[in-house]
Amino acid sequence: MHPLSQQFGAVLRRRREAAGRSQEGLAAAAGLHRTYVSMLERGERMPSILVARKLAGALGTTMGDLLGEVDRQADDAGPAPHPRRPKP
Amino acid sequence: MHPLSQQFGAVLRRRREAAGRSQEGLAAAAGLHRTYVSMLERGERMPSILVARKLAGALGTTMGDLLGEVDRQADDAGPAPHPRRPKP
């Protein structure tokens, strides 16, 4: 898996959960399949900018805003990002 | 061709030309093939977010900034965008 797809997936999951949406609900709103949204959240697929825009629209924001957060996620994560840190 | 790929291509070409770069120079800096950059500028390919990030980096900016301009391009273009208007 590419670090960028993992970073995108982490941002997507965080935004979806913050909006109180299910994967199924978000997928339906974006015109995507639920299993594809699930794979995206796990970082298993690299989305096109069209998929990113569909998801951003379904979350009530823009592609630039959503991917700006992915940029910042990448900056925070550094060279070896790990989207889920276990609690000590 | 999808309107979004055309909008991305128009922004990419404008930014590249503003930076005084050739397609070949930009492609080399981004780690992409020149013919692929040419197809992107013509709106003939829908890039992944990874390709968008590579091109943004080669242009000295971020994915969020580059795609934020594509968002605004889409807003300006309206429902039937046409990236090259002939002069009257």
Q: Can you walk through the features of this model?
A:
In chain A, 65% of the residues lie in helices and 0% in strands. Chain A is an all-alpha fold. In chain A, helix 2 (23-30) packs across helix 3 (34-41) and helix 4 (49-58) crosses helix 5. Chain A is globular. At the A-B interface, helix 1, helix 4 and helix 5 of A face helix 1, helix 4 and helix 5 of B.
Structure at a glance:
The structure is a homodimer of 88-residue chains. The first copy, chain A, is mainly alpha-helical. The first copy, chain A, contains five helices and no strands.
Portion in beta strands of chain A: under 5%
Binned, the helix content of chain A reads: 55-70%
Helix and strand element order of chain A: HHHHH
Ends distance of chain A: 25 Å
Q: Which features would summarize this protein structure in a list?
A:
homodimer; 88 residues; mainly alpha
